[in-house]
């Protein structure tokens, strides 16, 4: 379909080449990178911080433990008071300690109702730590040795279940994930809102352009933001300038017609007089013939100038019914013994982007020919698809041979000189149609009956 008839259609808002989709993809990318980065570093930092805290706590506890345990002269171990952290008293709480004097005695926290701590971590006087098997699963175990004068070496070990640390980290990560997901959603929603609101003027511009193209408006209408206003202003100025140029061309074409017609009529008069005189008959005839050719060319060029100049100007449109109805009634008066029928399966409301004067001219030419050569009936058929600019004028006359069809649109061609006419109609009709991206085709009737079918249709894209 030619550009002039391409349907405006709903704007393809989320097409892959749309600004909207691009901005939204950029927002999505940045939000995922930003939120992902925050999530990653926050969980890492938190894990590090919690580990650090556990380690510091255990070091303090093991020092406290070492301060509380006494070795009695008989080699027995006793404590002045329990450790200050009550979790060492709750059975299987995950917090355990153990002190032993090898070969003599081992004492354990009240929380250690079963199992034992691995003493190997306490192998010298500095505090070491390992992950060892504890009473309730893997445990972070701290330990060191201290000499008890006369009693040997006392092994101190203290442990916290690793699961407690992991649980704290998992809890934090879960909560962080929920909050950051909510934040990401809010950011994407904001991006979406900004994109839809921010690009709305472009939609309005697209609608205004569509109205212009469909002929519903003569300029781009509406208020636009400062970024778009200059563009819209320039476009409107361009449209106005174009319209003025076209108007001027039409006026000049009309003036030219008037300027040439009168001298040509005077010349034709003189030529007729010469043709009636015996001595100048030949010269008079030649002048008459040439004058007629000149008149044809003037008429043709004027029709061409006025239609082609007006073609495709923004804001030009005709409703097919409004143009066709008066022409049909004029044709019924002009050819009273012929029947003019209209077949419009989807009504006559279609709007064609063609100047109404040009469209009327085009349809009059086709209907006048059909009326002149038909025997009984002329049928006008509109396309079944409402928005398709397609129309056929079908008559039941003698029709034309393929060879005649090939030449019928040439200037001054007439195959039936018994019928009045100048042989310009089809040439002008084809010119007007071409200027609006329409194709005029003549063909024998599709149903095989005698007659001619003149069809107007949209040129394929790029044609
Ligand atoms: N519907 C038709 N049936 C048969 N012949 C046709 C039909 N339409 C056109 N023709 C033939 O094609 C020729 C050219 O048509 P065209 O409309 O250009 O000129 P015209 O009708 O003779 O003159 P004009 O339209 O300028 O008054 C006609 O003279 C006629 O011989
Ligand atoms: Mg004609």
Automatic annotation (TrEMBL):
Entry-linked InterPro entries: HAMP_dom (IPR003660), HATPase_C_sf (IPR036890), HATPase_dom (IPR003594), His_kinase_dom (IPR005467), TCS_sensor_his_kinase (IPR050428)
EC id: 2.7.13.3
Entry keyword set: Kinase, Membrane, Phosphoprotein, Transferase, Transmembrane, Transmembrane helix, Two-component regulatory system
Occurrences of domain Histidine kinase (ranges): 255-460
Recorded catalytic activity of this chain's protein: ATP + protein L-histidine = ADP + protein N-phospho-L-histidine
Gene Ontology molecular functions: kinase activity
Gene3D superfamilies assigned: 1.10.287.130, Histidine kinase-like ATPase, C-terminal domain
Predominant place of localization: membrane
Subcellular location: Membrane
Domain of life of the native organism: Bacteria
Residues spanning the membrane: 21-42, 178-199
Enzyme's top EC category: transferase
Domain HAMP positions: 196-247
PANTHER family for the chain: SENSOR HISTIDINE KINASE TRCS (PTHR45436:SF5), SENSOR HISTIDINE KINASE YKOH (PTHR45436)
Protein's UniProt name: histidine kinase
Lineage of source species: Bacteria, Pseudomonadati, Pseudomonadota, Alphaproteobacteria, Sphingomonadales
């Amino acid at each position: 379909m030619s550009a002039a008839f391409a349907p405006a259609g709903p704007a393809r808002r989320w097409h892959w080449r749309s600004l909207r989709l691009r901005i939204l993809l950029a927002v999505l990318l940045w939000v995922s990178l930003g939120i992902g980065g925050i999530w990653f570093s926050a969980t890492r930092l938190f894990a590090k911080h919690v580990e650090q805290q556990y380690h510091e706590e255990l070091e303090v506890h093991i020092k406290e433990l070492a301060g509380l345990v006494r070795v009695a002269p008989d080699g027995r171990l006793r404590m002045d008071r329990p450790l200050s952290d009550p979790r060492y008293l709750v059975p299987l709480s995950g917090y355990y300690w153990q002190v032993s004097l090898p070969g003599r005695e081992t004492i354990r926290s009240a929380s250690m109702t079963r199992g034992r701590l691995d003493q190997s971590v306490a192998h010298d006087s500095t505090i070491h730590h390992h992950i060892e098997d504890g009473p309730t699963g893997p445990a972070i175990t701290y330990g060191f040795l201290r000499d008890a004068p006369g009693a040997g070496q006392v092994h101190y070990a203290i442990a916290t279940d690793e699961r407690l640390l992991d649980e704290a980290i998992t809890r934090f990560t879960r909560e962080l994930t929920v909050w950051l997901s909510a934040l990401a959603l809010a950011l994407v929603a904001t991006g979406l809102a900004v994109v839809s609101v921010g690009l709305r003027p472009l939609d309005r511009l697209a609608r205004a352009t569509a109205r212009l193209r469909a002929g519903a408006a003569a300029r781009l209408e509406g208020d636009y933001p400062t970024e778009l206003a200059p563009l819209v202003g320039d476009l409107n100025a361009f449209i106005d300038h174009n319209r003025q140029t076209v108007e001027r061309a039409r006026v000049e074409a009309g003036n030219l017609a008037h300027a040439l017609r009168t001298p040509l009529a005077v010349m034709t008069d003189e030529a007729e007089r010469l043709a009636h005189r015996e001595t100048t008959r030949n010269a008079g005839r030649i002048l008459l013939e040439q004058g007629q050719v000149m008149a044809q060319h003037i008429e043709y060029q004027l029709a061409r100038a006025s239609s082609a100049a007006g073609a495709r100007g923004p804001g030009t449109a005709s409703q097919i019914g409004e143009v066709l109805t008066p022409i049909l009634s004029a044709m019924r008066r002009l050819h009273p013994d012929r029947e003019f029928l209209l077949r419009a399966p989807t009504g006559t409301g279609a709007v064609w982007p063609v100047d109404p004067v040009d469209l009327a001219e085009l349809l009059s030419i086709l209907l006048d020919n059909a009326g002149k050569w038909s025997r009984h009936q002329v049928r006008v058929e509109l396309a079944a698809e409402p928005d398709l600019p397609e129309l056929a004028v079908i008559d039941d006359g003698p029709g034309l041979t393929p060879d005649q069809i090939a030449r019928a649109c040439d200037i001054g061609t007439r195959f039936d000189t018994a019928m009045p006419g100048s042989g310009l109609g089809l040439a002008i009709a084809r010119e007007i149609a071409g200027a609006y991206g329409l194709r005029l085709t003549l063909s024998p009737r599709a149903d095989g009956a005698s007659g001619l079918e003149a069809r107007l249709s949209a040129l394929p894209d790029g044609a």
